[in-house]
Amino acid sequence: MSRIGAGRRYAEAAFELAVRGDKVDAWQRDLALAAALAGDEGVVRIVDNPAVPFGERRKVVEQLLGKHVSPQALNLALLLAKRSRFGVLPSVSSEYDAKVRQTRGIVAATVTTPEPLSVAELAAVRTRVEQLAGAKVELATGVDPGLIGGLTIKIGDRLIDASVRGRLERLRGRLVQGTT
């Protein structure tokens, strides 16, 4: 079972429980916390190790998460630990976030620029990206000095490259095609 597939199934189950209990935001916070913990290779090495008795793995998970997440989220983390699948939690959290955005009509987008954007520039970019997406946007930003100038926008699986580097690469491709 792939991490993405497993993550999606656990996320869908968690989302159903969250909606029934009217705790969508609480689950989102708890899953993000558990995912951050599961992002630590040392923790995953212990918790996902079937050679370590489950009682010991359970204690580790309870000590790390018990006071910080809801009992239901802790139960999910323990279930994953019991199945030696604790390392799938980052995927569960990511898939859960996507499900929440989809339900709320929000599209995830990433804007990458050669330098950090000012507040005014970010607001203008957000407005334009929302127009392109036709929906409210959860905007993440990134910096890549290699872009030289301009920006790239990733909305879902669509990439809009309006960078100087992208334009130069396209120009080079046309020149190479014209000379061969």
Distance between the termini: 46 Å
Strands, total number: 4
Estimated radius of gyration: 21 Å
- Poorly predicted runs: none
The share of residues in helices is 55-70%
- Biggest pleated sheet: 4 strands, mixed
The rough form would be described as: elongated
Query: What's the CATH topology label of the largest domain?
Result: Peroxidase, domain 1
Q: Can you tell me the CATH superfamily of the largest domain?
A: N-terminal domain of the delta subunit of the F1F0-ATP synthase
| Order of the strands making up the biggest sheet | 2-1-3-4
Main traits of this protein?
4-stranded mixed beta sheet, single chain, about 180 residues, Peroxidase, domain 1, alpha+beta, 2 domains
Explain what this protein looks like in three dimensions.
- The structure is a single chain.
- The protein is of the alpha+beta class and 180 residues long.
- The protein has 8 helices and 4 strands; from the N terminus they run H-H-H-H-H-H-E-H-E-E-E-H.
- The chain folds into 2 domains: 3-101, Orthogonal Bundle (Peroxidase, domain 1), CATH 1.10.520.20; 105-179, no CATH class.
- 62% of the residues lie in helices and 16% in strands.
- The protein has a 4-stranded mixed sheet.
- Helix 1 runs antiparallel to helix 2 and helix 4 packs antiparallel against helix 5.
- The longest helix has 18 residues, at 3-20.
- The chain is elongated and about 65 Å long.
- The model has no long low-confidence stretch (mean pLDDT 93).
